[in-house]
Amino acid sequence: MNLDELAGPLTKYARAQGSRCDQGDQASKMQKLQYDTRFKDADGLFDWYATYEELSDAFELFCPPSTVRDQGLLVVGCGNSSLSSDLYSAGYGDITNIDVSSPAIEKMQQQFAALPMRWLVMDATSMTFKSDSFGVSVDKGTLDAMMSSHADDLAGALCREVWRVLQPGGIFILVSHSGKRMPLLRSALSSFPVPAASDGSDVPVPAWRCLELRRCRLSPQATLINVLRSKLPPAGKLVDAFRDPELLQQASAEAKAALKRMAFIDAFRLFKARKRAQAGLQDDVEADEDPQERSLC
Ligand SMILES: C[S@@+](CC[C@H](N)C(=O)[O-])C[C@H]1O[C@@H](n2cnc3c(N)ncnc32)[C@H](O)[C@@H]1O
Q1: Which residue among 78, 174, 208, 279 is the one 20 to 30 A from 98 at the CA level?
Q2: How many CA atoms lie within 13 A of 48 on its CB side?
Q3: Residue 241: which domain range?
Q4: More confident residue, 251 or 105
Q5: How far is the CA of 231 from the centre of ligand 1 (A)?
């Protein structure tokens, strides 16, 4: 993708985002009404952090389409992301998408009417699905959005619900940059009582097993936004950066260089992850956690 061509669509996006985000009003970001307004205003697709392109290696490694086909895949807080349609194109079937925002779901339903997948308005912190309904759950940015609004209780509820609706041995692909993700996942388990075995034998204690933790490449859009943001004065607004052609050109060049570097590092990390997976090792979760809580926009 040519980064210079991103300026147009992103300007529109930033305009929709700008005022709220730049006021640092993180606390209200999670609120349904604000998401509704955002998705009503925003046309087209936008992906937080990364697209399927940057994540496909992890999907292929841990839950290739052939292993998921009949088990069902849940996308939690799908927003207007291209991930679900890309997953479908990659061969994943039986996809269910939920989001608390009805404008988001309505628009996605319209846009992807031809694809056989479900789009449901549903609160991820209290899902209406039966327990053990899905083989794979995917969250990209929703848990982080809840945490950036300092609502740990909501984020905890989301983790508990994901655990409840996942089948035993199911996979939760969580794309997050929050340092609190692992403690949250672990504490979500404490609300599930360990059943007593009828024959008195030991029952395995429920646990999230972290299969992989690595830094994933950001999408070109997310990279450009990050570079632009780094060039803004303290109270600067992202939307203004998009109105400055010189700044945009400079940021595009830097973003291109950063993407090249990230691609190289990512290839090396994937190689290491494959080796560890083959050796049956778990990654050292704590060592790689990012202590910095960063905002989403
Ligand atoms: C940061 S956006 C991420 C969107 C999308 N997953 C992506 O990667 O681009 C967070 C999304 O979570 C949704 N969301 C927030 N709270 C939610 C909740 N309680 N239940 C379901 N979705 C929620 C928002 O409407 C929004 O679409």
Answers
A1: 208
A2: 19
A3: 3-191+204-288
A4: 105
A5: 27
Strand partners, 75: 97, 138
Residue 108, classed as helix, strand or coil, is: helix
- Domain assignment present for residue 12? The answer is yes
Cα–Cα distance, 159 to 180 (Å, whole number): 12
Q: What share of the chain is helix, strand, coil (3-state, %, to 5)?
A: 50, 10, 40
Distance CA 274, CA 215 (A): 14
Which two structure tokens, joined as six digits, stand for 114? 């031809």
Q: Which atom of ligand 1 is nearest to the CA of 175?
A: 8
In a domain? residue 133: yes
Q: Is the CB of 77 under 6 A from ligand 1?
A: yes
Check which CATH number belongs to the domain holding 28 and give it.
Answer: 3.40.50.150
**Residue 211, Cβ density class (10 Å: 0-12 exposed, 13-18 middle, ≥19 buried):** middle
With a CB cutoff of 8 Å and minimum separation 6, the contacts of 154 are 30, 125, 146
Q: What is the pTM of this model?
A: 0.73
pLDDT tens, residue by residue, 174-216: 998 877 888 888 888 777 766 666 666 666 566 667 666 666 6
